[in-house]
Amino acid sequence: MNMTGPISRLRDDRVTLAHGGGGKAMRDLIEDVFTSVFQPPGMEDQARLMSAALQEPGARLAFTTDSFVVTPIEFPGGDIGKIAVCGTVNDLAVGGAKPLWLSASFIIEEGMDIAVLRRIVASMSREAATAGVRIVTGDTKVVGRGSADGIFVTTAGVGVIPPDRDLTAEAIRPGDVAIVNGVLGDHGAAILAARGDLALSTDIESDCQSLSDLMEAALAAAPGIRAARDATRGGLASALNEMAEAAGVTIEIEEGQLPLRAEVKGLCEILGLDPLYLANEGTLVLFVPEEQADAAIAAMRRTKAGRGAVSIGRAAPRGAMPVVMKTSFGGCRIVDMLVGEQLPRIC
């Protein structure tokens, strides 16, 4: 008898269709793999939540949802569980919300190794603790072989926006400074290398990380921050285009100020890719009035996720194109939205 902890009732090494059937096998999977780790408040069909932040007059709820289908499901710097938590937390944080609660729904393919599933769940739990959120409810479904490519994860997140915050891209004004918190393109490059299709050897790891602490630090130092956006699918270029269109401005960036690893640059040169369109999972871009830019950068650099914070350009009155880049050779290049899909299944 195991006298040091709960006895595992799950005897299978791989997920079977019985684990999605609603009976004892499903209960054993959920209790052994999921709720024993996430420890949600109760086992009802819904989570019942309360926070003092909701009681503040003028506070607003922020709610977001996302699905994750990344392949491979484990990659340098993270896995599908970590990216699911980070992606949802970051969607809340860049809107000025303090993330509080997450749901997690799993579609698992028959035959999946339960040891891998345990690693994914443990990764989610660690990242949730790092981000200061709780996974409070969820769902599990099992589908037949060949129907889900291992596992798909859907998360939804709820946070609270304090009454004095209203971050929106429409608020960006000419003269506002664009700041990123670190290097660009690491996630896309790491996923590309991890797939092994091109026999590439690299030490690049995904930048997958939660950005809630960074946003809180930046907002405390620079309360005038206009807007922020996490540069995920479509990379920095697509995020900037979306923000420029919403604000009716042109965003001018400086090629020489873009933080890029030499390895990412080299990978892109070999494959004919543009690092501005590579996905990120722990990188954001924010706009702040010029007089608060130095304070924002200094505050961001004091956080783990913002050590590489740097200004990359600024907003200007609307010109012919939403986003342009001043090149290192003194010319000017149009930076358009991503057309098509540069790299599928990256998140």
Write up this protein.
The chain is of the alpha+beta class and 347 residues long. It has helices at 24-38, 80-93, 114-131, 186-194, 212-221, 235-247, 262-271, 290-301; strands spanning 60-68, 74-75, 78-79, 98-109, 134-143, 151-161, 177-180, 227-230, 249-254, 284-288, 310-317, 323-326, 332-334. It folds into 2 domains: 17-45 and 54-161, 60s Ribosomal Protein L30, Chain: A; 169-334, PurM-like C-terminal domain (Phosphoribosyl-aminoimidazole Synthetase, Chain A, domain 2, Alpha-Beta Complex), CATH 3.90.650.10. The chain contains 8 helices and 13 strands. Strand 4 (98-109), helix 3 (114-131) and strand 5 (134-143) form a beta-alpha-beta unit. It is globular.
